[in-house]
Amino acid sequence: MTQSTQSLPLVTTWHLDYQGPELTLPLWPEGVYLQEAEVPSPEFSQFLFVAVGAPWRWYGRLGWTYQQWAEHLSSGQVRTFVLYQRGTPAGFFELCRHPEHNNSVELKYFGLLPAFVGQGLGGGLVQAAIALAQQWSQGRVWLHTCSDDHPAALSTYQKQGFVLIQTETEVSAAPVDYATAILDAAFVHSRLASFKQN
Length: 198
Hints:
Layout: H1 3-7, E1 10-18, E2 32-36, H2 42-53, H3 66-73, E3 78-85, E4 88-98, E5 104-112, H4 122-136, E6 141-146, H5 153-159, E7 162-171, H6 178-181, H7 185-197
Parallel strand pairs: 5-6
Antiparallel strand pairs: 1-6, 1-7, 2-3, 3-4, 4-5
Helix pairs in contact: 2-3
């Protein structure tokens, strides 16, 4: 291993399968409710991705254009559920169904906005995500998380019935200048261009 390779940041990714019991939707505290975002909205989904993911340097969809978001959300294989507290978005999760893998369902993105962390909402949100994934799936429910995510992410998933099936460590692909990347110029410019076309 060269000196330059040694200095690059590494990230560990854990792949997990759900092997627990069939779950039901949780009971929420007063003023808290979960609702599916049934109308595809690139603006709203991009907001959720950035608002929840920024503290953990989520980058997988930074650089997506407005059209990429629209196509993804309109594919028929994606469902987004948003947790609200007194009318304010508190968190979300996205489920992706994979027809090429026996309609397995992946818990693709999951998390709370920073202001709502530590209020006891995370466990219920995981339970809801599993229950709704089970209803939509014809088999496997799975996810992956990594060492750059919330420190409690892996243990939270394992406590809810996910089992570790694979671990891999590689050089992080996160943008070096994350503060600039998160401004997502490609999305902003393509969204403005879509207004001119309409």
